[in-house]
Protein backbone atom coordinates (compact mmCIF):
# COMPACT_ATOMS: atom_id res chain seq x y z
CA UNK A 1 0.00 0.00 0.00
CA UNK A 2 1.47 3.29 -1.05
CA UNK A 3 2.84 5.81 1.45
CA UNK A 4 3.01 3.47 4.42
CA UNK A 5 6.68 4.37 4.73
CA UNK A 6 6.74 3.96 8.49
CA UNK A 7 3.54 2.08 9.30
CA UNK A 8 4.09 -0.59 6.63
CA UNK A 9 5.26 -4.09 7.47
CA UNK A 10 8.68 -4.99 6.10
CA UNK A 11 10.54 -8.25 6.45
CA UNK A 12 13.55 -6.54 8.13
CA UNK A 13 11.52 -4.71 10.75
CA UNK A 14 8.99 -7.44 11.59
CA UNK A 15 6.13 -6.63 13.92
CA UNK A 16 6.63 -4.02 16.59
CA UNK A 17 5.58 -3.77 20.20
CA UNK A 18 4.68 -0.77 22.27
CA UNK A 19 6.28 -0.79 25.71
CA UNK A 20 4.71 1.38 28.33
CA UNK A 21 5.69 1.39 31.98
CA UNK A 22 6.21 -2.35 32.21
CA UNK A 23 3.37 -3.36 29.88
CA UNK A 24 4.12 -4.65 26.37
CA UNK A 25 1.40 -4.31 23.76
CA UNK A 26 1.91 -6.47 20.69
CA UNK A 27 3.97 -9.18 22.40
CA UNK A 28 2.84 -12.68 23.41
CA UNK A 29 0.63 -11.40 26.18
CA UNK A 30 -2.89 -10.20 25.46
CA UNK A 31 -3.49 -6.86 27.15
CA UNK A 32 -6.90 -6.21 28.67
CA UNK A 33 -8.05 -2.62 29.12
CA UNK A 34 -11.33 -1.79 30.76
CA UNK A 35 -13.38 0.85 32.47
CA UNK A 36 -16.35 3.10 31.95
CA UNK A 37 -17.06 5.13 28.88
CA UNK A 38 -17.05 8.35 30.89
CA UNK A 39 -15.43 9.18 34.21
CA UNK A 40 -18.26 10.20 36.52
CA UNK A 41 -16.94 10.14 40.07
CA UNK A 42 -14.04 9.11 42.23
CA UNK A 43 -15.89 6.12 43.69
CA UNK A 44 -17.01 4.93 40.23
CA UNK A 45 -13.37 4.98 39.08
CA UNK A 46 -12.03 3.25 42.21
CA UNK A 47 -14.58 0.45 41.81
CA UNK A 48 -13.80 0.15 38.11
CA UNK A 49 -10.06 -0.03 38.77
CA UNK A 50 -10.62 -2.73 41.37
CA UNK A 51 -12.54 -4.82 38.83
CA UNK A 52 -9.97 -4.32 36.08
CA UNK A 53 -7.26 -5.45 38.48
CA UNK A 54 -9.25 -8.47 39.62
CA UNK A 55 -9.78 -9.49 35.99
CA UNK A 56 -6.07 -9.36 35.25
CA UNK A 57 -6.42 -6.16 33.21
CA UNK A 58 -3.44 -3.85 32.93
CA UNK A 59 -5.00 -0.59 31.80
CA UNK A 60 -7.89 1.49 33.14
CA UNK A 61 -9.90 3.47 30.62
CA UNK A 62 -12.21 6.40 31.22
CA UNK A 63 -13.24 9.36 29.09
CA UNK A 64 -12.91 12.86 30.49
CA UNK A 65 -13.38 14.69 27.18
CA UNK A 66 -16.28 13.11 25.35
CA UNK A 67 -16.88 13.86 21.67
CA UNK A 68 -20.63 13.15 21.71
CA UNK A 69 -22.95 12.95 18.74
CA UNK A 70 -25.37 15.37 20.39
CA UNK A 71 -24.17 18.68 21.83
CA UNK A 72 -26.67 18.14 24.67
CA UNK A 73 -25.12 14.84 25.81
CA UNK A 74 -22.68 14.74 28.74
CA UNK A 75 -19.36 16.14 27.48
CA UNK A 76 -17.06 14.81 30.22
CA UNK A 77 -15.68 16.02 33.55
CA UNK A 78 -12.42 17.38 32.10
CA UNK A 79 -9.61 18.00 34.56
CA UNK A 80 -11.65 16.83 37.58
CA UNK A 81 -12.35 13.49 35.88
CA UNK A 82 -8.73 13.16 34.88
CA UNK A 83 -7.70 13.28 38.53
CA UNK A 84 -10.21 10.52 39.40
CA UNK A 85 -8.92 8.35 36.57
CA UNK A 86 -5.25 8.81 37.42
CA UNK A 87 -5.82 8.32 41.15
CA UNK A 88 -7.89 5.14 40.69
CA UNK A 89 -5.30 3.63 38.33
CA UNK A 90 -2.55 4.41 40.81
CA UNK A 91 -4.45 2.79 43.69
CA UNK A 92 -4.50 -0.52 41.80
CA UNK A 93 -1.11 -0.21 40.12
CA UNK A 94 -2.73 -0.01 36.69
CA UNK A 95 -1.85 2.16 33.71
CA UNK A 96 -4.48 4.51 32.36
CA UNK A 97 -5.72 5.73 29.01
CA UNK A 98 -8.02 8.57 28.07
CA UNK A 99 -9.18 10.21 24.87
CA UNK A 100 -8.08 13.62 23.66
CA UNK A 101 -10.10 15.69 21.23
CA UNK A 102 -7.94 18.72 20.49
CA UNK A 103 -4.68 20.49 21.34
CA UNK A 104 -5.78 21.84 24.77
CA UNK A 105 -7.07 18.45 25.96
CA UNK A 106 -3.86 16.79 24.75
CA UNK A 107 -1.77 19.31 26.63
CA UNK A 108 -3.81 18.77 29.78
CA UNK A 109 -3.53 14.98 29.86
CA UNK A 110 -0.16 14.27 28.26
CA UNK A 111 1.91 14.27 31.44
CA UNK A 112 -0.72 12.52 33.54
CA UNK A 113 -1.81 9.41 31.65
CA UNK A 114 0.21 6.50 30.29
CA UNK A 115 -1.54 6.18 26.93
CA UNK A 116 -3.51 8.64 24.86
CA UNK A 117 -6.46 7.70 22.72
CA UNK A 118 -7.50 9.38 19.51
CA UNK A 119 -11.10 8.41 18.95
CA UNK A 120 -12.94 7.31 15.83
CA UNK A 121 -14.36 10.77 15.20
CA UNK A 122 -10.91 12.34 15.22
CA UNK A 123 -9.11 9.67 13.22
CA UNK A 124 -8.67 12.10 10.35
CA UNK A 125 -8.12 15.21 12.44
CA UNK A 126 -4.72 15.61 10.82
CA UNK A 127 -3.60 18.50 13.00
CA UNK A 128 -4.32 16.45 16.11
CA UNK A 129 -2.48 13.47 14.61
CA UNK A 130 0.57 15.66 13.97
CA UNK A 131 0.47 16.90 17.57
CA UNK A 132 0.21 13.31 18.79
CA UNK A 133 3.32 12.61 16.75
CA UNK A 134 5.26 15.15 18.74
CA UNK A 135 4.73 13.59 22.15
CA UNK A 136 6.47 10.74 23.88
CA UNK A 137 3.41 8.69 24.87
CA UNK A 138 1.79 5.74 23.09
CA UNK A 139 -1.30 6.56 21.06
CA UNK A 140 -4.30 4.27 20.63
CA UNK A 141 -5.67 5.24 17.24
CA UNK A 142 -9.24 4.10 16.74
CA UNK A 143 -10.49 3.37 13.26
CA UNK A 144 -12.91 6.03 12.01
CA UNK A 145 -16.60 5.21 11.75
CA UNK A 146 -16.44 4.99 7.97
CA UNK A 147 -12.72 4.74 7.39
CA UNK A 148 -11.16 2.20 5.09
CA UNK A 149 -8.20 0.25 6.44
CA UNK A 150 -5.94 2.28 4.14
CA UNK A 151 -7.23 5.57 5.57
CA UNK A 152 -6.76 4.23 9.11
CA UNK A 153 -3.16 3.19 8.43
CA UNK A 154 -2.41 6.50 6.75
CA UNK A 155 -3.75 8.27 9.84
CA UNK A 156 -1.25 6.20 11.87
CA UNK A 157 1.42 7.21 9.35
CA UNK A 158 0.77 10.86 10.25
CA UNK A 159 1.65 10.16 13.90
CA UNK A 160 4.71 8.10 12.98
CA UNK A 161 5.92 10.64 10.42
CA UNK A 162 5.70 13.39 13.02
CA UNK A 163 8.10 11.43 15.23
CA UNK A 164 6.11 9.22 17.59
CA UNK A 165 6.71 5.51 16.86
CA UNK A 166 4.33 4.26 19.56
CA UNK A 167 1.03 3.71 17.79
CA UNK A 168 -1.54 1.04 18.63
CA UNK A 169 -4.36 0.53 16.13
CA UNK A 170 -7.86 -0.10 17.47
CA UNK A 171 -10.69 -1.62 15.45
CA UNK A 172 -14.00 -0.47 16.98
CA UNK A 173 -16.61 -1.30 14.39
CA UNK A 174 -17.60 0.49 11.23
CA UNK A 175 -20.85 1.82 9.79
CA UNK A 176 -22.69 -0.63 7.61
CA UNK A 177 -26.32 -1.03 6.53
CA UNK A 178 -26.91 -3.45 9.45
CA UNK A 179 -28.95 -1.86 12.26
CA UNK A 180 -28.96 -4.78 14.76
CA UNK A 181 -25.70 -3.61 16.27
CA UNK A 182 -24.43 -0.08 16.84
CA UNK A 183 -21.63 -0.69 14.32
CA UNK A 184 -20.31 -3.80 12.58
CA UNK A 185 -17.16 -5.17 14.17
CA UNK A 186 -14.80 -5.68 11.24
CA UNK A 187 -12.79 -8.59 12.57
CA UNK A 188 -11.09 -9.18 9.25
CA UNK A 189 -9.59 -5.70 9.63
CA UNK A 190 -7.35 -7.10 12.38
CA UNK A 191 -5.78 -9.58 9.98
CA UNK A 192 -5.57 -7.08 7.14
CA UNK A 193 -4.01 -4.39 9.34
CA UNK A 194 -1.48 -6.92 10.59
CA UNK A 195 -0.70 -8.05 7.07
CA UNK A 196 -0.04 -4.46 5.97
CA UNK A 197 1.45 -2.94 9.10
CA UNK A 198 3.85 -3.83 11.90
CA UNK A 199 1.81 -1.93 14.49
CA UNK A 200 -0.05 -3.71 17.31
CA UNK A 201 -3.81 -4.00 16.82
CA UNK A 202 -6.41 -4.09 19.58
CA UNK A 203 -10.19 -4.43 19.41
CA UNK A 204 -12.96 -2.49 21.13
CA UNK A 205 -16.00 -4.77 20.94
CA UNK A 206 -18.13 -2.41 23.06
CA UNK A 207 -18.49 0.44 20.58
CA UNK A 208 -18.85 -2.05 17.77
CA UNK A 209 -21.73 -3.99 19.29
CA UNK A 210 -23.43 -1.33 21.38
CA UNK A 211 -24.95 -4.27 23.33
CA UNK A 212 -23.43 -6.01 26.31
CA UNK A 213 -24.78 -9.45 25.38
CA UNK A 214 -22.38 -9.69 22.43
CA UNK A 215 -19.22 -8.44 24.14
CA UNK A 216 -18.01 -11.78 25.46
CA UNK A 217 -18.19 -13.64 22.16
CA UNK A 218 -16.80 -10.73 20.13
CA UNK A 219 -13.87 -10.40 22.56
CA UNK A 220 -13.00 -14.07 22.17
CA UNK A 221 -13.36 -13.83 18.40
CA UNK A 222 -11.05 -10.81 18.42
CA UNK A 223 -8.33 -12.81 20.18
CA UNK A 224 -8.85 -15.69 17.79
CA UNK A 225 -8.22 -13.43 14.78
CA UNK A 226 -5.00 -12.13 16.29
CA UNK A 227 -5.83 -8.99 18.27
CA UNK A 228 -3.10 -7.96 20.71
CA UNK A 229 -5.52 -6.62 23.28
CA UNK A 230 -9.06 -5.66 24.13
CA UNK A 231 -10.56 -2.33 25.15
CA UNK A 232 -13.84 -3.12 26.89
CA UNK A 233 -16.38 -0.86 28.53
CA UNK A 234 -17.35 -1.84 32.07
CA UNK A 235 -19.25 0.18 34.66
CA UNK A 236 -19.87 -0.55 38.37
CA UNK A 237 -23.56 0.06 37.70
CA UNK A 238 -24.35 0.28 33.97
CA UNK A 239 -28.01 1.16 34.54
CA UNK A 240 -26.99 4.58 35.86
CA UNK A 241 -24.05 5.20 33.51
CA UNK A 242 -24.12 8.67 31.94
CA UNK A 243 -23.01 7.21 28.63
CA UNK A 244 -22.89 3.84 26.89
CA UNK A 245 -24.67 2.00 29.74
CA UNK A 246 -26.28 -0.62 27.42
CA UNK A 247 -22.90 -1.72 26.07
CA UNK A 248 -21.03 -1.65 29.39
CA UNK A 249 -20.41 -4.95 31.16
CA UNK A 250 -21.29 -5.39 34.82
CA UNK A 251 -18.14 -5.93 36.94
CA UNK A 252 -18.86 -9.63 37.44
CA UNK A 253 -19.40 -10.12 33.69
CA UNK A 254 -16.07 -8.45 33.01
CA UNK A 255 -14.24 -10.76 35.44
CA UNK A 256 -16.08 -13.79 34.07
CA UNK A 257 -15.06 -12.89 30.52
CA UNK A 258 -11.46 -12.39 31.61
CA UNK A 259 -11.47 -15.87 33.15
CA UNK A 260 -12.51 -17.30 29.81
CA UNK A 261 -9.99 -15.40 27.70
CA UNK A 262 -6.97 -17.44 28.80
CA UNK A 263 -8.10 -20.55 26.93
CA UNK A 264 -8.74 -18.62 23.74
CA UNK A 265 -5.40 -16.83 24.04
CA UNK A 266 -3.59 -20.10 24.50
CA UNK A 267 -5.28 -21.63 21.47
CA UNK A 268 -3.63 -18.96 19.31
CA UNK A 269 -0.27 -19.24 21.14
CA UNK A 270 -0.76 -16.13 23.22
CA UNK A 271 -1.15 -15.68 26.95
CA UNK A 272 -3.66 -13.87 29.06
CA UNK A 273 -3.01 -13.68 32.75
CA UNK A 274 -6.40 -13.53 34.44
CA UNK A 275 -6.54 -14.51 38.10
CA UNK A 276 -8.68 -17.56 37.31
CA UNK A 277 -6.82 -19.20 34.47
CA UNK A 278 -3.10 -18.71 34.86
CA UNK A 279 -3.14 -20.78 38.01
CA UNK A 280 -2.77 -23.81 35.79
CA UNK A 281 0.90 -23.83 34.88
CA UNK A 282 0.74 -26.28 32.01
CA UNK A 283 3.92 -27.05 30.06
CA UNK A 284 2.37 -25.32 27.05
CA UNK A 285 1.43 -22.12 28.95
CA UNK A 286 4.85 -21.92 30.63
CA UNK A 287 6.57 -22.33 27.27
CA UNK A 288 4.34 -19.67 25.75
CA UNK A 289 5.42 -17.31 28.53
CA UNK A 290 9.08 -18.13 27.84
CA UNK A 291 8.51 -17.44 24.13
CA UNK A 292 7.11 -14.01 25.01
CA UNK A 293 10.06 -13.17 27.22
CA UNK A 294 12.55 -14.39 24.59
CA UNK A 295 10.88 -12.22 21.99
CA UNK A 296 11.27 -9.12 24.14
CA UNK A 297 14.92 -9.98 24.98
CA UNK A 298 15.76 -10.06 21.26
CA UNK A 299 13.72 -6.92 20.56
CA UNK A 300 15.53 -5.10 23.36
CA UNK A 301 18.91 -6.33 22.09
CA UNK A 302 18.06 -5.05 18.62
CA UNK A 303 17.07 -1.68 20.10
CA UNK A 304 20.35 -1.60 22.09
CA UNK A 305 22.34 -2.34 18.94
CA UNK A 306 20.66 0.54 17.10
CA UNK A 307 21.75 2.91 19.88
CA UNK A 308 25.27 1.44 19.97
CA UNK A 309 25.48 2.19 16.26
CA UNK A 310 24.57 5.84 16.91
CA UNK A 311 27.20 6.04 19.68
CA UNK A 312 29.74 4.66 17.21
CA UNK A 313 28.93 7.46 14.79
CA UNK A 314 30.22 9.91 17.39
CA UNK A 315 33.55 8.14 17.99
CA UNK A 316 36.89 7.98 16.25
CA UNK A 317 37.72 4.63 14.68
CA UNK A 318 40.67 4.08 17.05
CA UNK A 319 38.56 4.85 20.16
CA UNK A 320 35.63 2.56 19.62
CA UNK A 321 36.29 0.20 22.52
CA UNK A 322 35.82 1.89 25.89
CA UNK A 323 36.90 -0.49 28.64
CA UNK A 324 36.04 1.76 31.56
CA UNK A 325 32.46 2.20 30.28
CA UNK A 326 32.14 -1.57 29.84
CA UNK A 327 33.36 -2.14 33.42
CA UNK A 328 30.90 0.38 34.76
CA UNK A 329 27.96 -1.27 32.92
CA UNK A 330 29.11 -4.74 34.00
CA UNK A 331 29.31 -3.78 37.68
CA UNK A 332 25.86 -2.20 37.63
CA UNK A 333 24.34 -5.27 35.97
CA UNK A 334 26.09 -7.71 38.30
CA UNK A 335 24.60 -5.80 41.26
CA UNK A 336 21.17 -5.85 39.63
CA UNK A 337 21.39 -9.57 38.87
CA UNK A 338 22.35 -10.29 42.48
CA UNK A 339 19.40 -8.23 43.69
CA UNK A 340 17.05 -10.15 41.36
CA UNK A 341 18.52 -13.50 42.41
CA UNK A 342 19.91 -14.17 38.96
CA UNK A 343 23.38 -15.75 38.95
CA UNK A 344 25.84 -12.86 38.27
CA UNK A 345 27.97 -15.34 36.28
CA UNK A 346 25.30 -15.17 33.59
CA UNK A 347 25.87 -11.44 33.18
CA UNK A 348 29.65 -11.96 33.28
CA UNK A 349 29.36 -14.48 30.43
CA UNK A 350 26.81 -12.75 28.23
CA UNK A 351 27.87 -9.12 28.36
CA UNK A 352 31.39 -9.46 26.92
CA UNK A 353 29.72 -10.90 23.79
CA UNK A 354 27.25 -8.02 23.65
CA UNK A 355 30.08 -5.48 23.95
CA UNK A 356 32.20 -7.33 21.41
CA UNK A 357 29.44 -7.44 18.81
CA UNK A 358 28.74 -3.75 19.48
CA UNK A 359 32.38 -2.83 18.92
CA UNK A 360 32.58 -4.92 15.74
CA UNK A 361 29.33 -3.41 14.52
CA UNK A 362 30.61 0.12 15.14
CA UNK A 363 33.92 -0.58 13.37
CA UNK A 364 32.24 -2.20 10.35
CA UNK A 365 29.82 0.66 10.13
CA UNK A 366 32.59 3.28 10.30
CA UNK A 367 34.65 1.47 7.67
CA UNK A 368 31.60 1.25 5.39
CA UNK A 369 31.00 5.00 5.77
CA UNK A 370 34.69 5.75 5.04
CA UNK A 371 34.51 3.53 1.96
CA UNK A 372 31.44 5.31 0.69
CA UNK A 373 33.11 8.66 1.26
CA UNK A 374 36.20 7.57 -0.62
CA UNK A 375 34.08 6.30 -3.48
CA UNK A 376 32.15 9.54 -3.69
CA UNK A 377 35.36 11.63 -3.62
CA UNK A 378 37.21 9.38 -6.02
CA UNK A 379 34.70 7.35 -8.04
CA UNK A 380 36.04 4.16 -9.65
CA UNK A 381 36.80 4.82 -13.27
CA UNK A 382 36.93 8.54 -12.43
CA UNK A 383 40.27 10.31 -12.71
O1 LIG B 1 29.23 3.58 25.33
C1 LIG B 1 29.92 3.42 24.33
O2 LIG B 1 30.91 4.13 24.07
C2 LIG B 1 29.58 2.38 23.36
O3 LIG B 1 30.14 2.34 22.28
C3 LIG B 1 28.59 1.35 23.72
C4 LIG B 1 29.26 0.09 24.28
C5 LIG B 1 28.09 -0.84 24.77
O4 LIG B 1 27.81 -1.82 24.11
O5 LIG B 1 27.47 -0.48 25.77
C6 LIG B 1 30.01 -0.56 23.20
C7 LIG B 1 31.38 -0.53 23.13
C8 LIG B 1 32.20 0.11 24.14
O6 LIG B 1 33.35 -0.63 24.42
C9 LIG B 1 31.46 0.44 25.36
C10 LIG B 1 30.12 0.40 25.43
From TrEMBL:
Q: What are the alphabetically sorted keywords of the record? A: Transferase
What would be one Pfam family of this protein?
Answer: DAHP_synth_1
Keyword Transferase appears in the UniProt entry:
yes
Q: Which intervals hold domain Chorismate mutase?
A: 277-366
Give GO BP annotations, semicolon-separated.
Answer: aromatic amino acid family biosynthetic process; chorismate metabolic process
InterPro entries attached here? Aldolase_TIM, Chorismate_II_sf, Class-I_DAHP_synthase, CM_dom_sf, CM_II_prokaryot, DAHP1/KDSA, DAHP_syn_2
- Entry GO MF terms: aldehyde-lyase activity; chorismate mutase activity; transferase activity
Give the NCBIfam families listed for this entry: DAHP_synth_Bsub, PRK08673.1, PRK12595.1
Name it: 2-keto-3-deoxy-D-arabino-heptulosonate-7-phosphate synthase I beta
The species is: Desulfosporosinus metallidurans
* Origin organism lineage: Bacteria, Bacillati, Bacillota, Clostridia, Eubacteriales
